[in-house]
Write a structure and sequence with these properties.
The complex is a heterodimer of chains A (114) and B (107). Chain A is an all-beta fold and 114 residues long. Chain A is built from no helices and twelve strands. Chains A and B meet through strand 5, strand 6 and strand 10 of A and strand 4, strand 5 and strand 9 of B.
Chain lengths: 114, 107
């Protein structure tokens, strides 16, 4: 079955701590990979995306993600979180061909303590 | 089961026609959103509504219109003014609730 798994549902960190959010996907073809952030009361915003090329992708606000094809993973990282990073984070995949669809993970709610 | 229902899954439109995409939710969420995805890009916000009878333009609202007469429903109309309507459209409500999307193709 096609799916995206985010294993951390709730994460609480102190400011300046490092962040890594896991994302694994199951899909029998080539996909594009995304991380989105949703701040409280706001819409989804794209953090970063991977289509091809360098598997280490840098996004906005100091976030980066690494695509490891052999592990079907696309983990999100940030070396030092800030209180303003408190939000919900979604991993998503979209097949590059065939049926047009978007598969979201269940989200990780991050709380950063000041 | 609670969730967001988008219909139709695939839609074909002739140039110059308006077309309406349906989005219904039974989650009792106040906020609803419409996004568009084009090849090579992430989702972009078209319109959103935080409450019944109120809605706001997103980043790419030109050529689109919405209504929010009921909490459960947030239809999106792609008007003839939208110059490049062929795309994948995704409806969502607050946090974790996404529709399955509608693929619109102009023929």
């Amino acid at each position: 079955a096609q799916s995206v798994s985010q294993h951390n549902h709730h994460v609480i960190l102190s400011e300046a701590a490092s962040l890594e959010l896991g994302c694994n996907y199951s899909y029998g073809g080539t996909v594009n990979l995304f991380w989105y952030v949703q701040y409280p009361g706001q819409h989804l915003q794209l953090l970063l995306k991977y289509f091809s090329g360098d598997p280490l992708v840098k996004g906005i606000k100091g976030f980066e993600a690494e695509f490891i094809k052999s592990k079907f993973s696309f983990n999100l990282r940030k070396p030092s979180v800030q209180w303003s990073d408190t939000a919900e984070y979604f991993c998503a995949v979209s097949p590059i061909s065939g049926t047009y669809k978007y598969i979201f993970g269940t989200g990780t709610r991050l709380k950063v303590l000041a | 089961d609670g969730g967001i229902t988008q219909s139709p899954k695939y839609l074909f439109r002739k140039e110059g026609q308006n077309v309406t995409l349906s989005c219904e939710q039974n989650l009792n969420h106040d906020a609803m959103y419409w996004y568009r995805q084009d090849p090579g890009q992430g989702l972009r916000l078209i319109y959103y509504s935080q409450i019944v009878n109120d809605f706001q333009k997103g980043d790419i609202a030109e050529g689109y219109s919405v209504s929010r007469e009921k909490k459960e429903s947030f239809p999106l109309t792609v008007t003839s003014a939208q110059k490049n309507p062929t795309a994948f459209y995704l409806c969502a409500s607050r946090s974790k609730a996404f529709g399955s999307g509608t693929r619109l193709t102009v023929v």
